[in-house]
UniProtKB/TrEMBL annotation:
<protein>
    <submittedName>
        <fullName>Uncharacterized protein</fullName>
    </submittedName>
</protein>
Length: 269
C-alpha cells in the first residue's frame, strides 16, 4: 500500500512540442489493496465453468479400467531353479552384523515442520484472488458430457486369466553371501547414528511459519472502477516545458492557460 501527496509530473505529447503536466496533485498517488479484495477478474460475470450440471471426464465408469495379471501369471523368471548365485558357501558382504549400522531419529524426532502451529497461510479470513465471481467466462460441456473413456466396459486388460510376472517361483533367484562373509562394516558396533534420543530439525514449532494477507486482502487492482479514465490538468503559463528540437529536449518558458491534457499523454516523470 502506497500513498503520496507529492505532485506527480507527467510528460505529455502536444504536436510538435512536449510540455509538463501535473497528475494527482494534493491527492493519492497509488493505493494497492485498500479495504478490499485481492484480485478480481470478471466480477459479476462469468469466468470459467467446466462441466456444469454434467460430466466432464469419466474414466472406466461401471467397468474395468486397467487390469494387470488377473487370475494368473504374467512373467516367469527362474521357475524351479536357480537364477543367480554370488558367493555361495563363502564370504560376500556383511554390513552391521550384531550391531547398529545406520540409525536416524531413534527415540526422537527427525524433521518436524509446523508442529502445533501454522506453516503457510495465504489470505486467511479474507480474499486473496477472485476470478469470475458471480458470473460466467468460459463454459465447457454445460449440461452435457465432456469426455468418457471406457463407459460400461473394459479399458485395458493385461494377462487376464493367464500368467503375468513370476520371479523365482519354487526356487532360488538371487543369493548373495550364503554361509559366509564377504565385506564387514561396523561389526559388533555402531556405524552412524543421527538424532538419537533427540530432535533433528524443527521448523515452526508451536508458532507460525509464513502468513500472507491474514485477516485482509491480498491484491486489488481497479476495484469498483477503471484504472485511469479521468482527464488531467496541464499548466502552460509561467511553467517550464520541454520542447523537442532535432532529437533533443530543451526547456523553454511560455505563457498559456490551464487546459486538459491530450489523450496521448503517456510518459510520467
Amino acid at each position: 500500500m502506497h500513498a503520496s501527496n507529492r505532485t506527480k509530473v507527467v510528460l505529455v505529447a502536444s504536436n510538435p512540442k512536449w510540455r509538463w503536466c501535473i497528475q494527482h496533485k494534493n491527492g493519492v498517488r497509488r493505493f494497492q489493496n485498500q479495504n478490499g479484495v485481492g484480485h478480481i477478474q470478471n466480477q459479476n460475470g462469468v469466468g470459467h465453468i467446466q462441466n456444469q450440471n454434467g460430466l466432464g471426464h469419466i474414466q472406466n465408469q461401471n467397468g474395468l479400467g486397467h487390469i494387470q495379471n488377473q487370475n494368473g501369471l504374467g512373467h516367469i523368471q527362474n521357475q524351479n531353479g536357480v537364477g543367480h548365485i554370488q558367493n555361495q558357501n563363502g564370504v560376500g558382504h556383511i554390513q552391521n552384523q550384531n550391531g547398529v549400522g545406520h540409525i536416524q531419529n531413534q527415540n526422537g524426532v527427525g524433521h518436524i515442520q509446523n508442529q502445533n502451529g501454522v506453516g503457510h497461510i495465504q489470505n486467511q479470513n479474507g480474499v486473496g484472488h477472485i476470478q469470475n465471481q458471480n458470473g460466467v467466462g468460459h463454459i465447457q460441456n454445460q449440461n452435457g458430457v465432456g469426455h468418457i473413456q471406457n463407459q460400461n466396459g473394459v479399458g485395458h486388460i493385461q494377462n487376464q486369466n493367464g500368467v503375468g510376472h513370476i520371479q523365482n517361483q519354487n526356487g532360488v533367484g538371487h543369493i548373495q553371501n550364503q554361509n559366509g562373509v564377504g565385506h564387514i562394516q561396523n561389526q559388533n558396533g555402531v556405524g552412524h547414528i543421527q538424532n538419537q534420543n533427540g530432535v533433528g530439525h524443527i521448523q515452526n514449532q508451536n508458532g507460525v511459519g509464513h502468513i500472507q494477507n491474514q485477516n485482509g486482502v491480498g491484491h486489488i487492482q481497479n476495484q469498483n472502477g477503471v484504472g485511469c479514465t479521468k482527464k488531467k490538468w496541464c499548466w502552460t503559463h509561467l511553467k517550464p516545458k520541454w520542447c523537442w528540437y532535432s532529437m533533443v529536449f530543451k526547456m523553454v518558458w511560455s505563457a498559456g492557460m490551464k487546459t486538459f491534457c491530450p489523450i496521448n499523454a503517456v510518459k510520467c516523470m
